[in-house]
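Morning. Coffee machine broken again, so started the prediction first thing and wrote up yesterday's gels while waiting. Chain of 114 residues, entered below exactly as on the submission form.
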Amino acid sequence: MRSPISLGIVFVAMAAFAVAGLHGQRLGPLAIGLVVVLAAAGLLVMTGVRAAYYVGLAAGALTALAGICTWTGLGGARLALPVQPIIAVVVGLYLCFRVAIAHKLFGPRPRPGE
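Came back before lunch.
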């Protein structure tokens, strides 16, 4: 699980799961923005560029924050992903944790012999 590709797949899978939805729920405008950020972060993480670290952390934090806001009733239907709020919180924290663990994978690769 040290590959940036496997980490990117987790981001894209969460975005795809949110788009597919449950029980025919429609996404609000802020939730659509969150899905776009998750998908973009997943694709960027797969490239392994340094900016992917920061975008990945931001996407995970936004997912967790959206889950917390929906769970407490602050966000209403605008922020709600079509999953239980606790799942959004746990997945968002998991994404942040995985990106933090993989921080050495992002950025320029050392040349052999250096």
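The chain has a mean pLDDT of 84. Going to sketch it on the whiteboard this afternoon.
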